[in-house]
Amino acid sequence: MQAQVDVAVIGAGQCGLAVGRQLKMRNSDFVLIDRCARVGDSWRRFMDSLRLVTPAGVSALTGLAFPAPARAFPGKLELADYLENYADAFSLPCELNVEVRRVRTIDGRFTIDLSPTGSDKGGHEEQSLVANSVVVATGFLHELRIPNFAEELDPTINQLTMSDYLAPDQVSGPVLVVGAGNSGVQIAHDLAPAHEVWLSGPNPGHFLFDLSNPTLWNIAHRLFTPRNPVGRRFIAMIQRKEPPVIKISEKRLRQMGVIRLPKVSGTENGYPVLADGHTVRPATLVWSTGFRSDFSWIHLPVFDAVTGLPRHTRGITEIEGLYFMGLPFQYGFTSHFIRGVDRDAANIVEHLAHHRLANAETTLSDRSDHPQ
Ligand SMILES: Cc1cc2nc3c(=O)[nH]c(=O)nc-3n(C[C@H](O)[C@H](O)[C@H](O)COP(=O)(O)OP(=O)(O)OC[C@H]3O[C@@H](n4cnc5c(N)ncnc54)[C@H](O)[C@@H]3O)c2cc1C
């Protein structure tokens, strides 16, 4: 990899690719860096049966339609392959199998420390890249949140995280799924034909509208933004509580034999104790208790002490040249969905281009004020 670049985009998921396409259209000097072996790998890691909740008609980035009927719900591999094809179709410069270990500023420019990942480390060494601007597109769901008492559980219980879970034949039952949000419900639903399944945690309710209609998503994309009162009210409402479960009804869970249990509150003699005082004895426990962000590798004073998330306005931070993509509600309701990514990317790249122009003009006027 070269030692200097104008714009370094960290992460080649959907957000990084959308930024990459915008930069390409402006003939920028940029690179996309990702620790994965293949573009799309962040989707390939999900459980085998995962299908999108957004239909194909709104699950594509600008310039390349999703190769499926507009109302179909693509599977995880279809989306992963689509993203890989997208990078190829626009010849986006991706450096894969490279992890960013640290970002800091030295003499007003960003220094990015890199190390190779994957099995093919031979010949590659740790190195640094210097950039004028950095776009962090690494998502915000980084580390699983697992309660401390997990360590007290009996070693005979096979503990998995939602990131480790792929398919029912990987585990034996009864299975206790801890956490009943969207991921927990999807895992319980996936396991139920093969195992006895207990689903623990508060029920956030179900959202059962027909989500296969792209027009609905397009309306939500335009309407639910901070630019209008309806959007502001809607975004504030969904930020306040756990989002409802999408696509799987309570009736369906009941029909499949999933047993609802209260929250797990601790352990007793190595077994999970529920909030009502009962103890359960699962063979497998799947933690589906959510994620926290980890931007500790970015050594720049831009993070909120409470949330750990960067302070920003539509992804633009107070540090000149530093941008973020894919943050929760980065702008509108659809920012976290594929549908909203291009709008956010365009805004960031527009800002980046103006900032570059303004700097160039200042440099020119400095030169003419101080003739050599
Ligand atoms: C289970 C699940 C289902 C979802 N379903 C839908 C859906 O149906 N429709 C929809 O529109 N959205 C859906 N989403 C939401 C959203 O589309 C995804 O979260 C999306 O993957 C976020 O894109 P991203 O580019 O921000 O992050 P990611 O796809 O996670 O990409 C980030 C990339 O950064 C790389 N990276 C991270 N750290 C580093 C580092 N230090 N150095 C180098 N590379 C690094 C990673 O390898 C990764 O490739 C879903 C999300 C989840 C979790």
Layout of secondary structure:
Layout: E1 4-10, H1 14-25, E2 30-33, H2 41-44, H3 76-89, E3 94-95, E4 98-106, E5 109-116, E6 127-136, E7 143-144, E8 158-161, E9 175-178, H4 182-191, E10 197-200, E11 206-207, H5 214-223, H6 229-240, E12 245-246, H7 250-255, E13 259-261, E14 264-268, E15 271-274, E16 284-287, E17 291-292, E18 322-324, H8 338-369
Parallel strand pairs: 1-2, 1-6, 2-3, 6-18, 8-16, 9-10, 9-16, 10-13, 11-12
Antiparallel strand pairs: 4-5, 5-6, 7-17, 14-15
Helix pairs in contact: 1-8
The protein binds flavin-adenine dinucleotide.
Class inferred from helices and paired strands? alpha/beta
Number of helical regions: 8
pLDDT average, as an integer? Answer: 92
Task: Provide the succession of SSEs.
Answer: EHEHHEEEEEEEHEEHHEHEEEEEEH
Biggest sheet, in brief? 7 strands, mixed
Low-confidence stretches: none
Number of domains: 2
CATH superfamily of the largest domain: FAD/NAD(P)-binding domain
Give the CATH level 1 class of the largest domain.
Alpha Beta
Work out the helicity level: 25-40%
Ligands present: flavin-adenine dinucleotide
Distance between the termini: 36 Å
- DSSP, total strands: 18
| CATH architecture level-2 label of the largest domain | 3-Layer(bba) Sandwich
Strand content: 15-25%
The coarse silhouette is globular
CATH topology of the largest domain: FAD/NAD(P)-binding domain
Radius of gyration: 23 Å
